[in-house]
Amino acid sequence: MNPLLSVHNLKKIYGEGCDDCMGPSPRPGPDNLCPICGSIIACTDVTFDVYPGEVLGIVGESGSGKSTVLGCINLTTPVNGGEILYSRLQSGIRNILEVDAQTRRTLQNIHFGIVYQNPHLGLNFSISGEGNVAERMLVADSRNFAAIQEKVHNLFERVELSSARFKDYPINYSGGMQQRVQIAKALINAPSLILLDEPTGGLDVSVQAKILDLIRSISRELNVAMIMVSHDIQVIRLLCKRIIVMKHGRIIESGLTDRVIDDPQQAYTQTLVHSTIQ
Amino acid sequence: MQPHLEVINLSKVFHMHVLGGKEIVAFENISFTLPKGRFLGVSGKSGYGKSSLIKCIYRNYNATSGEILFYDDNGGSIDLTQAPDIEIIDIRTRRMGYVSQFFQTIPRVTTMNVVIEPLIDRGWKRDDAIDRATELFTIFDIPKNLWDAFPSTFSGGEKQRINLMRTLIDSPELLLLDEPTASLDRKNRTIILDIVKELKKQHISIIGIFHNPEELEMLSDDILVLDQGEPEREIEVPEYRITNNTFAFQV
After folding, report:
1. What gap in Å lies between CA A250 and CA A62, rounded to an integer?
2. DSSP secondary-structure letter at A105?
């Protein structure tokens, strides 16, 4: 099987940077700061593939670089090095870090969808829930109002948002409903890849379970690939067959999810598994 | 006979960083060949690495050294210790099944959906998958009122039968059994043993751990004995013949 997305040696540095941390293999320090110039190494040497239809998990502690990697793929975080090859553009396999502005918007609006932990990042709070999702269809060149409305309503039913609430503003939604609208917004243009950045963080356990069930059933029904970032290895275990473990901006271990959980190789992964699993 | 699985000098050592770098040897330098369609029983005391061996074959554990060659019909092979994860996922989906004594339930998913999921993963239509599962429910004696319930609430025997159904429904060519009859009552044990006998008749290659020596001898063509992490001897036992087969079970 050919990968949908191939990330090679991705690098993101916050700060001035120096020859060492901007180079191919920066010296590791005790944390995610460059030991020479003190710049923040948000991620470096990050290499992995995503295959069509799979859910790939990324776990790691706060500040390990998980969200940075998603931001780089979504082309919202400028990178300092590496390439991201994507196979579904009409022009063939392309490094999406080098595409023009129009292709970039096509990727962000049609090929990719993103769900943030913080709904303020994913939703426009000054328009209705329905409007949030419809707006995304407009940028993908849909113009027929009735067709847009029907598609949005069908999708809202799929993500189990009550029809009485379609026209409410996001501020009036519960945390779970905000995530459902974000998921609908991510799905509306039938993307190839959905980026999930802690989509259930901060939700109570029963709502979390329902959102996870929804994500699981969508990934199975629509065969859309997903990258799921979470610090909760149990959430990842439920959804992902393969995972990547990150620490200090680097990938320290990757493998089949059950293998990483049952036979963790690295010290940090062992600590993570032994801290979270009873 | 054509080999199906060849294990060469396989060792598993756990390096426990969380225990100050302590090393735990699960087993060392195991070699054996499983011919196609044979049942290899694995015996040995608790803690001698039987489960770890099976988990290395399924790649639930990373082997520390050695090779596990898994052959296809054309005589080609893939080393399961080195194959990329994505290939192992495909092999698990299409060719290899694993049943442990612990049922790994999927929360909030009904029995029917748990059982048909492997077929859906292989591209079956939902209706066809449900028909196939319905046949199996009869053979495995799962009453209809449980089909749309959550298995997490079931008895141990029911869970284990569903566990086995989920693994068998997509007809693996190699089956790994890690004490599937442990902690079951006589009725459930008999159901599961009868099904394993039937699989044997269909020449599915099986590696099985059974705690009960009678079960192990009854089912095994060959027995691998693990002793202090090393295979002590390989012995042949007579092939068991099924005399009272009432199953019409097609995998």
Report:
1. 13
2. H
Band of pLDDT at residue A144, cut at 50, 70 and 90: very high
pTM across the whole model: 0.91
B62 and A267 in contact by Cβ < 8 A?
no
Contact in structure between A13 and A39 (CB atoms under 8 Å): yes
Cα separation, A111 vs A31, in Å, equals: 35
Question: At residue A211, what is the residue type?
Answer: I
Sheet holding A5-14, edge to edge: A40-50, A5-14, A81-86, A94-95
Would the CB atoms of B86 and A270 count as touching at under 8 Å? no
Q: In chain B, which residues have their Cβ closer than 8 Å to the Cβ of A270?
A: 16-18
pLDDT tens per residue across span B177-218: 999 988 788 988 998 899 999 999 998 999 999 988 889 889
Decide if B59 touches A, using CB distance below 8 A. Answer: yes
Q: Which of B17, B61, B90 sits opposite A270 (nearest CB)?
A: B17
Q: Which domains does chain B have, with CATH numbers?
A: 3-234 (3.40.50.300)
Tens digits of residue pLDDT in A156-185: 999 999 999 999 999 999 999 999 999 999
Q: What angle do CA B83, B95, B170 make, to 5 degrees?
A: 145
Neighbours of B102 (CB within 10 A): 12
String of DSSP letters for A136-200: HHHHTT---HHHHHHHHHHHHHHTT--GGGTTS-GGGS-HHHHHHHHHHHHHTT--SEEEEESTT
3-class SS string, chain B: CCEEEEEEEEEEEEEEHHHCCEEEEEEEEEEEEEECCCEEEEEECCCCCHHHHHHHHHCCCCCCEEEEEEECCCCCEEECCCCCHHHHHHHHHHCEEEECCCCCCCCCCCHHHHHHHHHHHCCCCHHHHHHHHHHHHHHCCCCHHHCCCCHHHCCHHHHHHHHHHHHHCCCCCEEEEECCCCCCCHHHHHHHHHHHHHHHHCCCEEEEECCCHHHHHHHCCEEEEEECCEEEEEEECCCCCCCCCCCCCCC
Q: Which of A64-73, A214-223, B189-198, B233-242 has the lowest mean pLDDT?
A: B233-242
